[in-house]
Amino acid sequence: MSKLDGVLCVMGAVGIGLFHGVFYLWGHIGNYVISYFHHQGDLNANNKLGVVIIPLLYFVNNFTSPVGPHFMKTVNLRYIMVGGLGLMLGGLFFASYMNTFTAFIMCYSVLMPTGRGIFFFVPYVCSYQWFPERKGMITGMMSAGVGVGAVIWSILSTAIVNPHNVSPTVPDDGSGKLERVFPKEIADNVPKMFRIISVCCLVLALCGIYTTRENPVFVRNQRRIEAQRKRQEASGEMATCKNYISCKEAFYSWRFYHLLLLLTLGSFQPIYIMNVYK
Fold first, then answer.
1. Per residue in 112-128, pLDDT tens?
2. In DSSP terms, which residues pair with 181 in a beta bridge?
3. What is the spatial distance between Cα 44 and Cα 82, in angstroms, rounded to a whole number?
4. Architecture of domain 3-219 in CATH?
5. Global pTM?
């Protein structure tokens, strides 16, 4: 064990952050995807239905986020990360084979964020173990990786789907659709875009998973402290101290609803921007 292992762990976490940037791609590719399903004959593919994708992404991702850190105590972290990676990339990859917009939403907005939520925080936890006094800097580096990744995937997706920057037009195909869509030759590149991005993300994620590892000294110390605490509690040497509140107690606390309101209101602006900026 050396500091080099810690540095590699952080670098791998930043690489995984680049991969996670694909999570914020919908605002850029939404019109291409809707155009693709329109030309496939699915007239239910429209922006009215498309606006549910980003809120659904966030809901599923946040719901599954505690899973990875929770199981790190009992399950090998690479099993957790590979499992999450499989679900996330599986959702992204299989979305390219869906024939209806509804089936696409299930893959892209349910399966993909489920996998992302499972292993998103695992690299954070491991990096914190190596540099406990630099948590702020590490969080900033990994968050920057996510942001840079979103920019990279946006540029790459445009280069694959619409390299000549063709503009959408109102379709003259008798469908009565008034929303603008891209021509069929542009929209037909959408499945290829998802598959190429999936392969690129797979390479980045595997490199990050390989370098991500726990700090064995930190883990041993934590286990020793936990074992000592349990012995003291069992022998009555230390009074049991509960430093958390239960879910039932939270529901009776005004602070819980205050925090929930702030989080809800704070999420509206970025969701609206990501939905409509393209």
1. 999 999 988 888 889 98
2. 169
3. 35
4. Up-down Bundle (1.20)
5. 0.79
